[in-house]
């Protein structure tokens, strides 16, 4: 490949995927002096790979996967001076390096070298730089590096070195820089002392606990020992000739700094993030080369100003920069220099604090502890606490009555600043009833608030000529005696608020000519003498709000020329015209002084009249005297009633929102209430007619049981496919009939006569719907293919549900959406149904139970001891003396057991009124007489449907039928009830001979119980429709039994 490149000097093959190079591949390149093979995929270096490269002086093979180098690999590269084998998989120092006698720098970093022995670097006498960073090298013993006499830079960082023998570098006399950071060294005593040429030593991130400046050579200039466990920068031998210029001892456990802890030659000192709590005075004196000191994030609480004292810095040099933020400074009286430290630059003896804005002070005083920025703290906030103090010039400290002795009263806390210009005595909240007697005479601030003083005696503060601030607020003071504040000539702030002072006669504040702030708010002051505030020539702030002032001439405070702030609100000012005009005029002219002008109210009335108030209106120019005219207020201020109006409107809005939400979500709310507490909402009261037109389907269903529904025999008629009977019987019927609801169900295939289901389903469906409060359809694919596919069933169901769509419930099971969409006769039922449920949906049973109203009649009715029989045509209604149980499946469809023919005879249909009259007596139970049936559906198949019935076209509505049945009045009812309500329909009987039965047997006129239950359809329409249906086939004779529906 390279045979014609004889004069090639530099070959760069970096960042490729070379994993193998043939032997003698570079043989023609005898002028090549630089070869770059880094970041490839080489694994092995063969013996003849570099043959012919006699003048090669730089070879880079870093970033490969080299794990094996032949011992003869560099024999022909004798002139090689730089070799980089970093980032490979070497586990030991290659023996091939012995042939590189002129090698200057060797990089074996980021390999897997765990150890090397004496002789590993044999013949490398010219080597000046050795990089072994990021390996697994353990201890260093003497002899390992003795073959490198000219070594100047040694990098052993990030290895696993735990111990270095004292003579390990004995023959490396030219070493200038050593990196041992990121190892596990715990001791360095005597290891580096003999290396006089050493200039840089990095021992950071080790486990060193003990350090002394005697452990390092004198000529060392750069020392990094951060990230160890050093507790002190020791200087046992008091070495002063150290030449260290940069010292990084941060992130250790150093607790104290002293002049010997810092070398005099240091320029950059990093001692941040330690545990330093003490900095000795003159620590940084004589450090003439100092330019920067980082002391932030330590534990310094107090520090004398002399701790930062420097040797005077020449004018041509900048002041050293100090960083002291992040320390928990306790700004007591010894730290008052801190806010002004940067203002002392003129002396050139103190540094510049660069992060003073980040330094926070914790101040302690009479008002508690506060954290404030050091740059903005006031000098009077730097306080120290004392119990007793005697000045040097005081000669009576040994006696009890000594005015110049500062003794803190019992139970109190006393504070002073460094110059004693502030002397604060805190006796607040002690519960004392008298002012402590031994308050220091030089006290400048006295706090007596929160006690029970009641009365301030005269001359109680006599002699406290230096007092500037006095707090006697919230102490239950009721009166102030004459000359109470006598002697307080320098008093500037007086707090008397939150007491029970009732009046100020005028002598209370005499001789307080320097008082600037007076706080009298929230008392019970009703009278203030005209001369009360006159002596207060320096008064600037006056608080009078929250008292009982009525006619105090506020304009008198105009004599206090320096007054700039006044509060008057919360007082029952008089609304008399003369006073109100003067008050409004003065407040208007001094609005810049009255800070609560909007809260000034005047009050009308007194004990005999109702008291009303009005806000002071400074814009009014005239008023009418309430008392002179004897009138009343025309109106009450609207603002007085705004809260009440707002609260009322809010309550109404919330109530309306609740009503709307309850109406919108009435069905889920009603279902929940019914399942939880058995309550039904939106139910119609008995005797009150409600039509479905006036309410929605859901509301109509929730209306529950009307008068007609109460007399129905069943709670629900369930229509389903015979293929779904297992689901209906074992799931649906079990839950509704035997569950908590206890409903009475009429199941289509269980309770209806099988003959009528097969041959004449229309009458059975009509009567079953009439006898039930609700109609439930189990809508499945089987239902659509069986029951719904029969024309007679659809016509009967349509006729039965006319006008009762709101009583329809549909339960969908399975995915039948496509079939439903394709059926034009089924879609209207789904649109008008009161409730559509999906089997398995959430809250299925609760919604279903809520939609079906339960019967209000008792299942077991006790009868009287007498027996009454009422004959209605051929129907016999009998009340017996023994109790009867209404069973769910009683069927009064009576078939004659002796004859195998079925004949429809004349039947009377009773309206709701006659039925209610007939069954009005609750003490008797109804029992309809049954004849044994003429046939059974148990095992014999049913007769097939008539052919003409299958082909019969859809009938028109009953009203349009040309042949109407003859309506006659059954004379058997005339004695029992009005004739207008008794209508019978006569239908032709069926020839029994066609059924194969020899005798003619007729069924009793009672037919079945459905005929005695009212429905929403007229008897005329029902009978007309029935006349057009073919008669059912006669069943075969069988043993007599009663059918229970």
UniProtKB/TrEMBL annotation:
A family per Pfam: LRR_8
GO MF entries: signaling receptor activity
Gene3D superfamilies: Ribonuclease Inhibitor, Toll/interleukin-1 receptor homology (TIR) domain
Coiled coil: none
One CC-aspect GO term: plasma membrane
TIR domain residues: 712-852
UniProt keyword Transcription, yes or no: no
Family matches, as InterPro entries: Leu-rich_rpt, Leu-rich_rpt_typical-subtyp, LRR_dom_sf, LRRNT, TIR_dom, Toll_tir_struct_dom_sf
Keyword Repeat: yes
Entries under SUPFAM superfamilies matching the protein: L domain-like, Toll/Interleukin receptor TIR domain
Signal peptide feature range: none
One GO-annotated biological process of the protein: signal transduction
Skewed-composition ranges (Pro residues): 1029-1038
Family: Belongs to the Toll-like receptor family.
Membrane topology: Single-pass membrane protein
Region (Disordered) location: 938-966, 1019-1045
Intracellular or extracellular location(s): Cell membrane; Membrane
Name of the protein in its database record: TOLL protein
Superkingdom field: Eukaryota
Residues that span the membrane, as ranges: 641-665
UniProtKB keywords: Cell membrane, Glycoprotein, Leucine-rich repeat, Membrane, Receptor, Repeat, Signal, Transmembrane, Transmembrane helix
